[in-house]
Amino acid sequence: MVRFSREEVQDAFETWWTIGNVEEDWTSWANLFVPDVTYEDYFWGPLQGRGEVDLWINAVMKGVPAIYTVYDWHIIEDEKVVLQCQNRRDNPHDDGPSYFDFPGLTVLRYAGDGLWESEFDYWDRTGARRTTAQFLDACERAGITDPVQTMTRRHWPDGPGWARTQAQPRPSWLDRPELPGIQRPHELRKLLAERHA
Length: 197
Prior knowledge:
Elements: H1 6-22, H2 26-30, E1 33-41, E2 45-48, H3 50-63, E3 68-77, E4 80-90, E5 99-112, E6 115-123, H4 125-142, H5 185-196
Parallel strand pairs: 1-6
Antiparallel strand pairs: 1-2, 3-4, 4-5, 5-6
């Protein structure tokens, strides 16, 4: 039996995408999950509850400020949404491609009332390593040393409208100076341990 209309799931998905991946309001994005959400990223491991998701996403995005997420496609089947995206860094140097991408795949399960009960993330780890090296080389050649300078977001997709913006990025982690940027699972485990201490 279908629990929710396709239109309701689509509306909730567009909100989820826009608040997080476009507006980069990761704190509000974490509140789009049920309080006891089950979240798993195959690299970072399992997270349980909104508090852990909020801590993780702000710390991770602070650790890789150049990355923004570009919509490819999604499908809806009952309460489940499967989507593909590109994790993108703009090239800060005139030579080479305009940007460096590696793909990701996400499976979301909708809970109703605009909230999500679970998320599972998968992404191309080999591609992430390769494009990180290419991006860092381009930064060195361009003379960029401040990571905030790399938050350019110049190459959004042509559409749909809810998957792009012309606004300057202002991610929520900018308002959390006490939060470290992280890039490794052991750093996340330390943060979570301190939170639960």
